[in-house]
Amino acid sequence: MAAPFELSDDSVVVIIGTGAGGGVLANELAQKGVSVVSLEAGGRYLPEDYINDEWESFGQLAWLDARTTSGDWRVANDFSGLPAWIVKAVGGTTTHWAGASLRFQDHEWKAATTYGPVQGANLLDWPIDPREMDDYYTKAENKLGVTRTGDRAGLPGNNNYKVFEAGAKALGYEEVSTGRMAINSASNDDRAACQQTGFCFQGCKWGAKWSAAYTDIPRGEATGNLEVRERAHVLKIEHDDSGKVTGVLYADADGNQHLQKARIVCVAGNSIESPRLLLNSASNMFPEGLANSSGQVGRNYMRHMTGSVYAVFDKPVKMWRGTTMAGIIQDEARHDPSRGFVGGYELETLALGLPFMAAFLDPGGWGREFTTALDSYENMAGMWIVGEDMPQETNRITLNHDVKDQYGLPAPNVHFDDHPNDVAMRNHAYKQGMAVYEAVGATRVFPTPPYPSTHNLGTNRMSENSRDGVVNKHGQTHDIANLFISDGSQFTTGAAENPTLTIVALAIRQADFIAAEMGKNNI
Ligand SMILES: Cc1cc2nc3c(=O)[nH]c(=O)nc-3n(C[C@H](O)[C@H](O)[C@H](O)COP(=O)(O)OP(=O)(O)OC[C@H]3O[C@@H](n4cnc5c(N)ncnc54)[C@H](O)[C@@H]3O)c2cc1C
Ligand code: SF4
User: Fold this and answer.
1) What is the C-alpha separation between 433 and 445, in angstroms, rounded?
2) 217-243 pLDDT tens trace
3) 13-519: which CATH number, 1.20.1180.10, 3.20.10.10, 3.50.50.60, 3.40.50.720?
4) Ligand 1 center to residue 19 CA distance, Å?
5) Cis omega before residue 391 (within 30°)?
6) Closest CA to ligand 2's atom 8
7) What are phi and psi of 326, to 5 degrees?
8) Ligand 1 centroid to 454 CA: how many Å?
């Protein structure tokens, strides 16, 4: 049957969320002839709708439903109601993302084995051999049009990159480039080349940056096998007496509730909403929430070890011009415990506009130190630090029964304590980041605390054994054969690299698995 599908149609695959994981999975399944209903809590915004104003754009696209925080991380103090920066819109956070698209290093698939025991860390190897991912990574890079892969050229460096590269070379770093970016360096895939207009976080008006919103989603819809219902917020996943999931309850834009039947349900709401939905779907049969026999749903929340370094120079840099994040130093991404921590980190160029800079440079800061820093905005360069953080069982998403969302459901609480390994790695990265800028004449340097989490990972992690995690190597929940997790919450460990390329590669791989299992009538 062609889209649109009936609520009573129990032959469809229902996918919750249309971001990097859900949006790609929906298109991949639709291309294979599988009927898909995608339910997306947010509205549909396309390049012509994007707003070139940081806070207005944030208000248009960000997930702003009630959330609470706890733990010793700075974010709980600085942004207590906003633990994460996640988008609520068709295309998910791929509208806001910067496009950095890196493969994991081989050893990062096997962190427990490589790093050995780390006190307080709940490390586990991914149940995937790195070689199994090679072809899927290539498919993901081709889909996203990643520069410096295939025959795609790198992007040109902007001023922010030129300062960064000069500092890196002065320090003796060797692996510095404009990186692998899901941004067209030449027109590709019916999308324009990057025009270097900047402010990529606010959505790319040229479509040069890949987003599921204007690639995978419309292509899936064009097959007639995919129906995307926007402003459809899933409240609960239903199951039958045998424990199989049977459909989902959702609220439409007017708040009216509907039950969409399903043969298979795939959860791709990002790493806070996905576990929250499983927990909010508790029933007599599954009192601790769906797929939670291990007790691991919501646990091992990771957000990458992050921070930023900004620096002021004598002359203008105008870092905001050109791509937001096309610049990377990879020398520190290796695993080298002689630095005092396991795992590694990347340094990536980053530019914020003045409104965001005022909010993020020194949250709560004031006085001359702060105002003179902002006065120097034109002469600033900036970089972001992103490294592997340790999964901890106690870092977790739980239901906060004291705070309710607009549907009367308990809000998620995000608890996060930095692990000593995260702290040691951040201090090392701050030192190196400041040294990069000081090597080329910075007059002031600003190590800057983490922003609300953009890389939200773990919380429904993959494991070989059902007791250690929530899903198997295909993202299929250990407990319920027709319930899948299809987003970054599957991550067993976080690796040092920005996660989206891996989320996309896993979604392509999962589509192969689901279609094959459906064909064999296994699910
Ligand atoms: C500013 C910024 C810059 C970034 N830059 C990079 C980068 O350079 N490289 C990189 O790799 N990553 C980057 N990221 C991270 C990247 O965007 C995310 O890791 C990725 O999009 C996560 O994919 P996902 O499928 O897990 O979730 P998302 O893409 O967030 O999609 C989840 C979707 O599910 C929907 N949803 C949630 N709950 C429900 C529900 N109950 N019912 C219906 N729908 C629901 C949401 O509305 C959302 O649309 C960046 C993120 C931000 C915010
Ligand atoms: S700099 Fe390039 S990728 Fe970024 S928003 Fe502009 S055109 Fe798009």
Assistant:
1) 9
2) 999 999 999 999 999 999 999 999 999
3) 3.50.50.60
4) 5
5) no
6) 204
7) -85, 80
8) 8
